[in-house]
Amino acid sequence: MRYRLFGRTGLRVSELLLGTMALRSEEEARRVLDVYADAGGNFLDTASAYGESEEVLGAVMERRDRFVVATKYTLSRDVRDPNAGGNHRKNLVLSLEQSLRRLRTDYVDVLWVHLWDRRTPVEETMRALDDVVRAGKVLYVGVSDAPSWFVARANTLAEWRDWTPFSGLQVPYNLVRRDVERELLPMASALGISVAAWAPLAQGKLSGGTQRAGRLTEREESAARAVRAVAEELGATPAQVALAWVRRDGVLPLVGVRTPEQLAGCLGEVVLPPEAVARLEAAAPFERGFPADFIAECEASPFAFGEAVVR
Predict the structure, then answer these.
(1) Who's near 170: CB < 8 A, 6+ residues apart?
(2) Are 186 and 168 in contact (CB under 8 A)?
(3) Where does the record place the NADP-dependent oxidoreductase domain (predicted)?
(4) How much is the pLDDT for 124?
(5) Rounded to whole angstroms, how far apart are CA atoms 102 and 57?
(6) Residue ranges per structural domain of the chain
(7) Whole-number pLDDT of residue 213
(8) Residue 2 and residue 24: Cα distance in Å, rounded?
(9) Phi/psi at 212 (5° precision)
(10) Do residues 219 and 176 touch, judged by C-beta distance below 8 A?
(11) Which tens digit of pLDDT belongs to each residue from 254-302?
(12) Residue 286 DSSP one-character state
């Protein structure tokens, strides 16, 4: 297992992140964690909204300091309570305290904002996150499922006001769902934010887990065939190939599994030759659209920035 720094911090995280939402029994979770840790994995991801997952994880996490434990807040804890959901300070504090009790720990390594809340001012969210970091209950913060402009604004505010910035970004990303390449991935690269990709196997569509007739679109079937073909040529599993494609530019796949066997099919380092990458992407064509494609065209033309750009 290789490791990467988490954003612009010194925190080392494994290249493969483990999503624990699907873990429902302590026996099952303990076996999965043992396989993951033995392979060198160290990042465990859960959320307040997963409920049972946090409790199971807390019961089996015997080597707590060995792991980078991440949870999320935002989603409602009680749909009848108007303040039980959202990114405001009250929900942050109550969600975090609930997660700490469930996880049987006095701090989490990473607290993610689970979802952009357009009703809560970004200043309130960032200051509240900084407060729990300064209190020692959270070490680093990240954000999931939010517009690029919001993340950029939040980190600019954090820089100006000496608050804790977002070090990580969670987005859905796989061979058949690449829209984050338009704005979110370039933004994260420019700001030094690590990217965690949820659904890197497209809910099993790229790993062979969903192959029954009528379950896949034409685009998904084309991508799945290409993944299987490349896997056969490289002597790898389809999951390993699909994850290697996600990892190629430093993105960290976040894999959710139920059994050690599923996890084992994802482990192992696979390096994709450029020809294999081209074949995979040709099977599921993608256009970045405006402004990315337009800017790229301009940058390659002397008309925009003079003859020096082509020299």
Answers:
(1) 112, 142, 143, 144, 145, 195, 196, 197, 198, 254
(2) no
(3) 16-283
(4) 98
(5) 8
(6) 3-281
(7) 45
(8) 28
(9) -70, 145
(10) yes
(11) 999 999 999 999 998 899 999 999 999 999 999 999 998 998 888 888 8
(12) -
Strands of 181-256 (E only): list them. 194-198, 252-256
- What backbone phi and psi angles, to 5 degrees, belong to 60? -110, -5
Q: In angstroms, rounded to a whole number, what is the distance separating the alpha carbons of residues 189 and 184?
A: 9
Residue type for 118, please? Answer: R
Helix 89-103 × helix 52-60 angle, to 10°: 40
At CA 193, angle to CA 138 and CA 64, rounded to 5?
35
SS3 262: helix
The pLDDT tens digits for 99-133 are 999 999 999 999 999 999 999 999 999 999 999 99
Q: Looking at the chain, how many residues does it have?
A: 311
Query: What tens digit of pLDDT does each residue of 47-90 get?
Result: 999 878 999 999 999 889 999 999 999 999 999 999 999 999 99
Looking at residue 142, the DSSP 8-state letter turns out to be E
Q: Whose CA is closest to 192, among 68, 9, 3?
A: 9
CATH number of the domain located at residue range(s) 3-281 in this protein: 3.20.20.100
Query: Which whole-number Å values give the CA distances from 225 to 31, 32, 209, 228, 293, in the listed order?
Result: 31, 28, 13, 5, 28
Q: What is the mean pLDDT of residues 139-153?
A: 98
Active site (catalytic) residues: 50
- Of the chain, the end-to-end C-alpha distance in Å amounts to 40
CA distance 279 to 226: 7
What are the structure tokens assigned to 249, written together? 């530019």
